[in-house]
Amino acid sequence: MANITLKAVRKSFGSFEVIKGIDLEIRKGEFMVFVGPSGCGKSTLLRLISGLEEITSGDLMFDDARVNNVIPSERGIAMVFQSYVLYPHMKVYDNLAFGMKLGKRDKSEIDTRVRKAAEMLQIDHLLDRLPRQLSGGQRQRVAIGRAIVRDPRVFLFDEPLSNLDAALRVATRLEIAKPHHDMNDVTMIYVTHDQVEAMTLADRICVLRDGVVEQVGTPAELYEKPNSVFVAGFIGSPKMNFLTGTFADAVGCTTLGIRAEHIDIVDQADATWTGTVVHAEDLGSDHFLFVDIGADEPVVVRRSGKLDTGMLGQVVSLRPQAENLHRFGPDDKPLG
Ligand code: ATP
Question: Ligand 1, atom 3: nearest CA belongs to which residue?
């Protein structure tokens, strides 16, 4: 069991306050992802939960126990960092077994656990190799395996995939999601900059901004019902289109938000906006058109299928889908 609760948690480095009063509950068995701009405090929050940093004020609870003063090795957590170090002279098997050997576990228990973790991560055929004989993704999986064999109650991941190339990121992301499904009462907290990782791995995402929680919710909730302009602009790629001033149509609405996939190209008679296609990006399965409608920035429109390059320079008529408009008031909060 590991329900993690933060109550009014603050952290200062000298006079510089980085975490400014965070209340958050991470449920047992949950995959929670922390996202937010660089410097907002994601890694610091993870380090407070791990015990690598001391909390300045507030309470950190694991289930009903206050763990502020419990040393890291007694918190039942395992951490996987962006940069990880395997013992270069030890085979994969011994890298995986090392922590348990130190803990003086029974030899057959160690063997069972190492093989189970290796199988789960599909590195069981690599147990006799040395780290230098592995690819980057395989090494990262050994690092994850080393955390798994310790049988932690809580996993903390700090951008574990950011050193990998695109294809390996996808493969390793699946490996991270898998143990979560296989060990359904393990709690995972994961820091990332990567939108796709956040949206695909998370049960819930916590959006942090300047040391406070901006919104917590499922990926779909954050995508569909962002509670501020900030979250609307932060979650989703490409970024939500924002229109202000005369383009914001409703009374009291200062910012209108509409996602790229919620704008249709229509006949001129049905147009809300008209503009010129100034740029396009082709992703193969779908494409983005950047349309200058006279607002501060071009409006991005997502369409399925391959790009017709003849669209560049054309004038198009656009209509946002009314049911998918996001209207924000002067306080940047949603209206209605
Ligand atoms: P990034 O996405 O860039 O990794 P982050 O959201 O993880 O950023 P943190 O690493 O938690 O942000 O840092 C938050 C703030 O705290 C930053 O302004 C950072 O400079 C500061 N900070 C972090 N650790 C220390 C420290 N040991 N001493 C002083 N300031 C620190």
Answer: 38
Q: In what order do the strands lie in the sheet containing 255-258?
A: 241-244, 255-258, 326-328
Nearest alpha carbon to residue 191 among 9, 25, 43: 43
Asked whether 41 lines ligand 1 (CB < 6 A), one says yes
Q: Is residue 336 part of a domain?
A: no
CA dihedral 223, 317, 308, 261 (to 10 degrees): 10
ipTM value, please give it: 0.97
**278's tokens:** 């100034």
Looking at the CA of residue 46, tell me the nearest atom of ligand 1: 11
Last residue of a domain, one of 234, 263, 296: 234
State the DSSP H helix or E strand holding residue 35, giving kind and residue range, or none if neither.
strand 31-35
Domain count, the chain: 2
Q: Which of 15, 18, 22 to mutate to test the pocket of ligand 1 (most atoms within 8 A of CB)?
A: 18
- Same domain for 167 and 21: yes
Taking the whole predicted model, whether its pTM rises above 0.95 is answered as no
Residue carrying structure tokens 């919620």:
262
Report the CATH number that the domain containing residue 323 is assigned in CATH.
2.40.50.140
Task: For ligand 1, pick from 34, 44, 46, 209 the residue to mutate: most ligand atoms within 8 Å of CB.
Answer: 44
- Residues 201, 280 within the same domain: no
Q: Within a domain: residue 280? A: yes
Pair of tokens at residue 71: 């040393």
Q: How far is the CA of 14 from the centre of ligand 1 (A)?
A: 13
| Domain end (from 234, 260, 276) | 234
Transcribe 232-293 into DSSP letters. HHHSSSSPPEEEEGGG--STT--EEEE-GGGEEEE-GGG-SEEEEEEEEEE-SSEEEEEEE-
Model confidence pLDDT, tens digit, residues 6-53:
999 999 999 999 999 999 999 998 999 999 999 999 999 999 999 999
Residue 334 is assigned to a structural domain of this protein: no
Q: How far apart are CA 307 and CA 304, in angstroms?
A: 9
